[in-house]
## 1
Amino acid sequence: MSILNIFKKKPSSVKATEGKEEKAEVGLPSASPKIKPAKKGSVRAYRVLVSPHITEKATELEKENKYVFKIFSRANKTETAKAVEDLYGVEVVNVRIINAPRKKKRLAGQAGWKKGYKKAIVRIKKGQKIEIMPR
């Protein structure tokens, strides 16, 4: 019945020792590594960007400093801009988002659906570059 122990009152002697921190032994590595907390308002790129969208049209847009990415359906423009800036180290000028709907497909008499997706066209500052495909 350890699940119900959370509802029991703790003795006062236990409460007094909870606030004090125990000293760790010198020279031994700690069991849990210290993780730096994320900056307030920072966006993790893996929660926003799915992948670069590589098509013929997308490669033509690179000449105009525009790059196309597939993004998660819940992502918005500001999150996308922050994620690209953090991941690639460039300055984003603007972001345009396109919601591609799902399409009805047919294969061997069976009807089905092709998944829809959301993509973002990100324009970066002139003179900067993103290496999407390694050469």
Note: Residues 77-88 form the longest helix (12 residues).
## 2
Amino acid sequence: MLVRLFGKGAVCPRRIMSLYDTCGSSYNTTRAADERIVDALVGLLNLPEDAVVADIGAGSGNYSRALAARGYHIMAIEPSETMRRLAVPSPRVAWFTGSAERIPLADAATDGVICTLALHHFQDLYLALSEMARIAPLGPIVIFTCDPRASREIWIADYFPTVWSDAFRIFPPVRDLARLLEAASGRAVDIVPFRLPHDLKDNFAAAGWRTPERYLEKGYRENMSAFQVADPEAVTKGVARLASDLADGTWQSRYGKTLLWDEIDAGYFFLRVAPAR
């Protein structure tokens, strides 16, 4: 089953990597590294300071820079020129142009690997995971991803149903992904749930679950790949309906209880490949 779904040569459900070439200078204003995610990455890596860590699909380097501030040397791998151009320089971050399927680093070049919300952009998932294991054959591999099947269905699915349904096609089931990662690395994989706080600094698709008004902002939506690949007409209709429901109190009557929650289970997980013994 894994070979059929995600095996060598298999193509991910959608090829959306190139969409980041259309992002503008506002990307870093809504997609900042969140310290709680950084804390989780550091804890799961469990590497000493001065360790060399590859960040695969580094984007504009927000998490690369945050981990560098914790004492790591980061090798940031990113195919998009636009994203690399948005990166804020750091003396502990070295940038490389390349894809996850062909990481431009030597065998065993790193002590560990991270990948944050980038797996769904890869063209060949098995090859990408194998490449991560190649460059870190002994160290941990930590992946932050989403599985909407494990999520509590939130109001976003009501107003933007195509975004929600697209996520089921784009993101593989987390347990299937864990098995694929085990096959690619030859090591055990742990699945660690991550509940979303209400005040995340990294505003990915479900991050604004307690601030629905943010989804009315075009710039806010444009910095999320889920909205960039969604049907524009459906998004426009959803925005109009959300604006109307917020204005007349309909949203509050249906979903106001979410404003009382501090965090939510939205189907986000860390996967951790254990270091080799």
Note: DSSP finds 13 helices and seven strands in the chain.
## 3
Amino acid sequence: MQTVLVSGGAGYIGSHMVKVLAERGYEQVVIDNLVTGFRQAVPPGIPFYNVDIGSKEEVSEIVRKHKVDAVIHFAARSLVGESVVKPDLYFHENTAKTNMFVSTLIQAGVRKLVFSSTAAVYGIPDRIPIPETAPTNPINPYGASKLMIEQSLFWLGKAYGLKWIALRYFNAAGAAFDGSTGERHENETHLIPLTLQAALGIRENIKIFGTDYDTPDGTCIRDYIHVLDLADVHILALEALEQGMESGPLNVGTGRGYSVREVIETAKRVTGIAIPTVETVRRPGDPPILVAKVDKVKSLFGWSSRYSDLRTIIETAWQWHKKFPTGF
């Protein structure tokens, strides 16, 4: 492998990917239009371009200049609520621009792609844990925009020999152990950073949306995976494509879920702070339980998570939030 291009490498997951690639000795180049990413998240010394994935000429030149051999594609809009209000934005920024981006890559000779997909492609599942063979019925434009990309990759593979793996993330969480990078969004919607912001006093409280679900403590259960475990799977996927693995989707999670109350209680223990909570009504479309079936990624890659116990996730996130309470 020559050089890996990381699109969206200044975002939350992308910046951790860049860090791990550097630690593993990979040559890489990062592109990000910085609409939701942060330039400070990319370590110095790594080639960076403030470029949109839809910019054909600029992307082509970067691929040629750096002799790009494979791509890890993170660049996307990812707020479910925003996608419901602005579906046209999501189908343009995610689906249409990714089609333009991948077409440019193919024309430039790139044939290996690891794609950042999402468990949102499943919608409300008909079984738990969720296997890759479960029906894909997204209930929001965000999930739909990602599923359309997966469908297009299938046909691009048929037509042009593109080899791809779509990693369907469940809940990425946590931060780098050295506190160099972590999770920051301008409009935060994720439970763990919201909870830690409440611990820091940046927010007055943390809201619990629904306490009457059919779960042991009445709150929703989600499968959280540490962002560094997630980065590790991307490298294994790259290596698998190098070795001729068949294209297709893979779940990335742990197969174990934690409830909203468990997350908040663990955050209280880690921080030593009595985090105030407010119980309120359910949000529309929130399934009671979302947990991944991860047999496939374990069997194909021999992979298992190393850092994804809830306490480690929250401890690393807490170190980041204390160091950068308002972001970089």
Note: The mean pLDDT is 96.
## 4
Amino acid sequence: MRVIAGKFKSRPLHSLAGMKTRPTSDRLRETLFNVLTAGNPSALEGSVWLDIFAGTGAVGIEALSRGAQRVTFIDKAPAAVRVIRENLKSLGVTEGFEIIDHEASRALRLYGEKGLAADYVFVDPPYASHDAYEEVLALLAQSILNQGAIVIAEHVKRHDPGEAFGAMRRYRKLVQGDSGLSFYRLE
């Protein structure tokens, strides 16, 4: 696993041992960021990100590498939080991030209570946690999104996380291998 592009291009990232964490593959991450920057390579400059169920932090780190101003990593697993910290340290990242080590819905409430809002949100719960998609996407539709924000949910291709959550609607779905990406925004 490595950073795909930007100032940390080709730098390796640590992963978690075992099968409990399924990091977003390099290929799927590359597809994700190609979609987000299509026609505008500087589209992510100065953006604010949430990486929910962050695991290794690879998506949020990719965003930082490509010019995001701030990334908040959310994961409740102590091993994941350690790996995120290791990855940031190995890249020399000392600012522009926050790590919230709580369950996702609680972390989102804390984030909102601080009056913060995001431009991009990446949601990648364990594939079998179908309820987590619904809970987190519904919470995101209620608050903490800036005008024009994009929410991306990674999921197994056989699971459809849903077309709409409140005023948030899916506008694009991509499938690559066994994984899918659903893109949402507020209407």
Note: The first strand starts at residue 48 and ends at 52.
